[in-house]
Amino acid sequence: MLDAPAGSPGGSRRRVDWLAIYFVSWRAFVLTTRQTGARKADLLDVIPEEFSAGSLTRGSLKWRINGVIYATPSNDMLRALKDGDAAVLIPSCCKNDPFGMHFGDSPIYLPVMIGDDTCAALALRDLELALPAPGPLRARLPLFPADASHTPMSHAEADATFDALAKTTLDPAVAKTISLHSGRVWLACALFAARHAPGVIQRMVRWR
Cβ of 130: how many Cβ atoms within 10 Å? Predict the structure, then answer.
């Protein structure tokens, strides 16, 4: 158990508990940045008060299970996910697509990989189970909440947690070279190493 800054103006701290809503949500957020190549601002609003209809919501997350797309799968269906199923994320408005005209119609499929601790789909499944979002409300609730009241996670909170854990668990020389943007860098480099064409990488990482 480690103490991590909460990122609030008051400088409060959180005890790291991977079963707590905040850390279930934060883990899903970090793994989603890595597998989607998303910018922090693509997934989170800077402060909770900026949350709006253009933000990423629980309604932006759907599920492909046995080849069928579900907007609100049951908990039993989520617990039974298997290889071949996928989380389906609909990109929200972002700085290079402020009205969702370029990427909003291009769903991101995050495959279920049973046994992979870095699987974003399974982390998102854990978030769905830890803090269910009723169907009619999904479009009005943030995808990555900071608490059980569905308060949107802020940039400051996400950054403070990442920095604290990196400094605590990694060599200091390594910790100071990474940030929440590193997931985007990692995906672009991994796609390049896999010999994907520049245009494919540009599209998958949503560069214009």
Answer: 16
Q: What is the pTM of this model?
A: 0.87
DSSP annotation string for 152-183: BPPHHHHHHHHHHHHHHHS-HHHHTT--TTHH
> Which of 168, 197, 191, 195 lies closest to 36 in space, CA to CA?
191
- Identify the pLDDT of residue 173: 92
Opening angle at CA 125, ends 114 and 78, nearest 5: 80
DSSP the chain: --EEE---TT--EEE--TTSHHHHHHHHHHHHHHHH---HHHHS-SSGGG--TTS-BGGGEEEEETTEEESS--HHHHHT--BTBEEEE----BTTBTTSSSSTTSPEEEE--TT-TT-HHHHHHHHHHHS---GGGGGGSBSSBSSTT-PBPPHHHHHHHHHHHHHHHS-HHHHTT--TTHHHHHHHHHHHHTT--HHHHHHHTT--
- Asked whether the beta carbons of 162 and 60 are under 8 A apart, the reply is no
> What would the pLDDT profile of 25-60 be if each residue is shown by its tens digit?
999 999 999 999 888 988 999 999 999 988 999 999
Closest Cα partner for 86 from 57, 122, 135?
122
- Under a CB-based contact definition with an 8 Å cutoff, are residues 156 and 170 in contact? no
Neighbours of 156 (CB within 10 A): 16
pLDDT digits (tens, 9 = 90+) for 6-18: 665 555 678 899 9
